[in-house]
Amino acid sequence: MSVAMDTESTYSGYSHYSGHSKKAHRQGRDRHKSPRSKDGSRSEKSVTIQTPPAEPLLGNDASRTEEGQDDNWGETTTAITGTSEHSISQEDIARISKDLEDSVGLDCKRYLGLTVAAVLGLLVFLTPIAFILLPQILWRDDLEPCGTVCEGLFISVAFKLLILLIGTWALFFRQPKADIPRVFVFRALLLVLIFLFVFSYWLFYGVRILDSKDTNYQGIVQYAVSLVDALLFIHYLAIVLLELRQLQPMFAVKVVRSTDGESRYYSLGHLSIQRAALVVLENYYKDFTVYNPALLTASKSRAAKHMAGLKVYNVDGPGNNASGQSRAMIAAAARRRDSSHNELYYEEADHERRVKKRRARLVVAVEEAFTHIKRLQAEEQQKAPGEMMDPREAAQAIFPSMARALQKYLRTTRQQQYHSMESILQHLSFCITNNMTPKAFLERYLNPGPTLQYDRDRWFSKQWTLVSEEAVTSGLQDGIVFVLKCLDFSLVVNVKKIPFIKLSEEFIDPKSHKFVLRLQSETSV
């Protein structure tokens, strides 16, 4: 009861009533009751809450206050939204738990593959050494003496193993860039080939040398040398399959971002779909501009505003299907299409005018701020040691003079969520340290950059899902389409084969380049 009385008194205070009599309270309630329509449903009402100008609260979403704003809107206006756009259900919880299980499975699969590869690699390098040492340990007295040729083979085995170790480290021991959903076919094929090859060598060694206790030690060493040579050839085969095969461009892929339609073209060689997806994502982070969902709210709010002004009446009764209402609303919106393009034109023109004005103010403010900084030479540093500042202190000293203009520009262009105050100060101190111009400092803020330019916590795309009708381990083919999905958007990749080009030659005799000047009597020449 006390809560209801407090709420009532507060409401009557906003309505400018004294609240000393019950009659005044009753009149205030009757006046502010929501009216009911003829069909008994309560009509919708919206309440706008504005804070006093002395305590401004700047929201991140500036799309709702774009119309009818002056240049000082950031200091006097507060936008408060009370509706959440995100909800969670039992299906979402189940999907999140499934994603966690999938991530655990990917980690186990990755570590299992690394363990198998490490064990197999250790077996490969220890096998030639074991072939040479086992006869010396088991039947040393029965072996024939090792001559000069045999001792030279020891040096050959040592250097070949060293070369194989360096090549294996350079080709296989790399930090993984991503977790792929399926195994890499060529790498798994090479591991199986190496295992079968080493197993066959051990089988022959056990049957022909260990069982019979062969006394020809030079032949045993030569057998170990042949194993190392074969391993070097397998390493060359791995270089061809894993590195050289994909270098020649064979396909042209078009990558389109589903939200804003930004697209890029890339050339790829013979790759599987999952490896082509990795190449696309690597280029996406450095070529595509950062995804900004705030730029998409203007069109959505404009469409919602047009649809909100339409009312549909059900003349057939409450039993009619709701699809008829949706068709009626779409038809009415289509009839208003002729006037909506004028609104769009003037909105974009006003936004461009506001951006140009605040960009000019920002450029002037930054140039004036940079004029207060002077780099001291070595002899000047000894004259006034008390006035010297490091780059961080200099950035903090000149930042307040440009902060207002920079804040307004970032809010107008909807980039404020990507630039924190600390990141701006770090970039400013970096520019001061490297003696960069104001134009170089503003380059990051005047034009949106790629995703790699911003902090990782500002990214909207960290985990991706590959969707393909074909098996992800199959190679690229003409006409294949696959999708890379993240939380807020997706990348649609269309694969086209580079056409076969037939180039012919035509010889032109240099002596045929002869010309004559044709004059007419009417000309001034």
TrEMBL record:
The keyword Membrane applies. Residues 74-86 have a biased composition (Polar residues). Residues 1-86 are annotated as: Disordered. It is a multi-pass membrane protein. Keywords: Cell membrane, Membrane, Transmembrane, Transmembrane helix. Coiled coil: none annotated. Pfam families: Strabismus (PF06638). Residues 36-45 have a biased composition (Basic and acidic residues). The keyword Zinc does not apply. The chain crosses the membrane at residues 111-133, 153-172, 184-204, 224-244. GO terms for cellular component: plasma membrane. It is found in: Cell membrane. Its main location: membrane. Residues 19-35 have a biased composition (Basic residues). It comes from the Eukaryota. Belongs to the Vang family. PANTHER family: VANG-LIKE PROTEIN. This is VANG1 protein.
